Amino acid sequence: MPFEELKPSLDAAYQKIAKQINVPGFRRGKVPPAVIERQFPGAARDEALNDILGAKYVEALEENNLTPLAQPEVEVLKYDDEGPLEFTAEVDVKPEITLPSYDGLSASVEDLAVTDEDVAEQVDALRERFGTLIDVERPAQEGDFVVIDLVATQDGEVVDGAEIAGFSYKVGNGGMIDGLDEALVGVNVDEEKTFTTQPGQRRAWSARTSR
């Protein structure tokens, strides 16, 4: 970018700075560029550079019909007094993809065999997904949903942050706390069960069902 194109941005930067500073002997907005350079070396050039880079970057994208996918990495190569500006902007751009011809292509798909077991499995999954929970008058068994309160103790003291209230849990689901499913099978409403887990740490959990 030649200096002739840079000069309007530099002049605008000097005018902007002149309106923002107070220099004894000069009215605000009337401070000469030479005085601004003595007081704030390079400030106008930096201000102009920010304005120029953005405009020229967009111009380059439009001229080359590029669609950027991120912010560019800009490197200024040359920016001397009254000299040209040279910079590079590196950015990932939207690629041009040429689709191959699909004439003559063929594909074969094997028939999908659906068994009665497959159908039953999907039906059971839909029943569980859209089913409605109802209270039952019997001890909990595997597959039931229970609402429980959990409290963990270690050496007789409640473990900080290891208390859960009103937690809905499917008995037999597994993957939460070792021993929980076994403790819940056969438990009644408002009954409390204590079980120990994580051997070596002497940590006990108490589970109470509320429904």
Short recap of the structure:
The protein is an alpha+beta fold and 211 residues long.
Structure description:
This protein is α+β, with helices and mostly antiparallel strands. It has two domains: 3-90, Trigger factor ribosome-binding domain (Alpha-Beta Plaits), CATH 3.30.70.1050; 132-209, Chitinase A, domain 3 (Roll). Helices cover 30% and strands 24% of the residues. It has five helices and six strands; from the N terminus they run αααββαββαββ. The strands form two sheets. It has a four-stranded antiparallel beta sheet. β1 (73-79) and β2 form a beta hairpin. α1 (3-18) packs across α3 (43-63). The longest helix has 21 residues, at 43-63. It is elongated, with a radius of gyration of 37 Å. The N and C termini lie far apart (77 Å).
Please describe the topology of this protein:
Layout: H1 3-18, H2 33-39, H3 43-63, E1 73-79, E2 85-90, H4 116-130, E3 145-154, E4 157-170, H5 180-184, E5 192-197, E6 203-209
Antiparallel strand pairs: 1-2, 3-4, 3-6, 5-6
Helix pairs in contact: 1-3
Tags for this model:
two-stranded antiparallel ribbon; four-stranded antiparallel β-sheet; 211 residues; alpha+beta; 30% helix; 5 helices; Alpha-Beta Plaits; elongated; Chitinase A, domain 3; 2 domains
